[in-house]
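Anyone? Bumping this.
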Amino acid sequence: MVRCSEMKLFISEGTAVKTNRLTGHICLLIICGFSSSNRSVSLFSRNMDQRDEKKNQQFSRNMDQRDEKKNQQFSSPVCVHNPHLDALKDDILYHFNLGTGSHNLEAMFGDVKFVCVGGSPWRMKSFIEFIAAELAMEDPKSEYPNICAGTDRYAMYKVGPVLSVSHGMGIPSIAIMLHELIKLLHHAHCTDVTIIRIGTSGGIGLEPGTVVITETSVDATFLPKFEQVILGKTVVRNTDLDQSLAQELLHCSKELNQFETVIGNTMCTLDFYEGQARLDGAFCSYTEADKQEYLIKAREAGVCNIEMESSVFAAMCKLSGLRAAVVCVTLLDRLKGDQLSSSQEVLHSYQLRSQILIGSYIKKQLNAKAEHI
Amino acid sequence: MVRCSEMKLFISEGTAVKTNRLTGHICLLIICGFSSSNRSVSLFSRNMDQRDEKKNQQFSRNMDQRDEKKNQQFSSPVCVHNPHLDALKDDILYHFNLGTGSHNLEAMFGDVKFVCVGGSPWRMKSFIEFIAAELAMEDPKSEYPNICAGTDRYAMYKVGPVLSVSHGMGIPSIAIMLHELIKLLHHAHCTDVTIIRIGTSGGIGLEPGTVVITETSVDATFLPKFEQVILGKTVVRNTDLDQSLAQELLHCSKELNQFETVIGNTMCTLDFYEGQARLDGAFCSYTEADKQEYLIKAREAGVCNIEMESSVFAAMCKLSGLRAAVVCVTLLDRLKGDQLSSSQEVLHSYQLRSQILIGSYIKKQLNAKAEHI
């Protein structure tokens, strides 16, 4: 198994990653696939000078050599990119109420192969009960204790190789959880982990209840990027998700044949009301026509649905080498309205769809692995 | 009482607010108090043209007339700024599991005068128990039901004129809550409401356990502004808090004389790890020296502590006419470390400090009002 606490970033097709080690700015220049790359270029330019250039060339060479070694391995680790972690006596995962000093993370989590994350703690508990039944691993007492019981920041449940974790709402909330989850999986020496966000979203031009598998997560200007502020400077990160995983999930849904599932872009915003052009927030300075114009532009850019976590999820999973997908059900068609006026029962039945799809996928994967052994 | 569902924004000293009604962009140009106002100017320029200028002049005139009328009133309402709300038959506050059609919001909340908000649901329940004892309004059965029991997005508790609401972690999470809270208080016809965020934070150069009352909330570049994306365009909003309320709270803490309390700037970030220059996240591309340099610059800009919600809290409360304060205890000194390694008991005792201060303040205010009557 490869351990990778050293500094490392992945280079994807069409993307150049450069790291400025002196100032600590990671600059990601997306050189294709953007409809307007000028902004990225200017962001990139701000952080580059000749001294950095030499360091980056060396860094890229090191990365190529490491990637080559990595490809020779049979298992893929969960990577942290933080040389300071090695100096920590204990690593306290504060928001999980777990730590390397207080818990044997490898014994607790070393067998994890699938991590499912979602906003609501209740939904993530219901998912673990569902997957336990699906995998015939039910607890006879039906007890699934919250592993993070000492805190109310997040909830975490585990059944066999499946971990289910809540992440709250919005990019900052899921980012805290992902930092600690990636460290947890790294400390537990997990390998070949697939992570799937099971969420809810607003659809654009889709029948409510449609499941959307994200092709690319885009921002509010429809660009496939996530902006991370580090030491007060903005760094642009790639939001690519695993395309083969997305296709496998679509195929799985077709086999299930229980509900409509599509692959499309997902817009990730920092706000639910004004940030998603809703007309029903406490503040609204635009018209219904402005809203429609914006959403139609989004649809023209391939956006099928809107939620609030996918961009940082995609960026962080990519950096840590996790195979990642975002699967969100649409609760309403935003072209037709803003308020979630369907009954609780209907909304609940929609939310079960992502669970059914992911449950089926995990079962299939585990069965295939068992047959292979 | 003044109802104000019409479009309206407040102009504060040294600030010009302009609204582009056609494109729906609110542009806020801060003309003093910024160390570098050029960025704001360029943001402003992008959204302005001559046609808008005329509309804005008319808008400003209307605002002046309305403000004059408002000043003649004795009570201050909670304002929404959304003309579309009047057209809604029911207003569903989805993330609270409440609504105007399903609940009598005026009967439930019409007497609210103080709203306390904080990240953790447990802490906000503990606060309502504390304030009930402080105001001698304890439930004999010690039962404080969660008003939002039908959802796990937020928790809400009420005792007499005090409402306690959780908001999760980060700007997006608190923004959703505030949109629905402001609408709730508006629908309930509440007046003269004071709102206080009781939070936790990392201190800069302060003894852990120090309580910081925020003077101004600043962003990761130490500027007093909040950037709201609306229809894909960035709008800059003011993050001023009520200075007289801050002074009253400081005075109250001096009278209590139980713990150190200071007034200072609070930096609000979108991320807990890289965004706050921590060295213990899953990813870290900078050195200890880089971190120290950044935090010392922050301290030189008057930043006493760092948290993740104050900027949007300040901006939204200002827009809705709520008298607002942010009171956060520091759990550690970030110049000395990053991990929260104090015992749970010590951290808990720190968190009680903000509650003690706010409890004392509310009691004092209610006693003064009772004497006045």
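Late reply, but here is one note on the structure posted above: Chain A touches chain B through 78 residues (CB under 8 Å).
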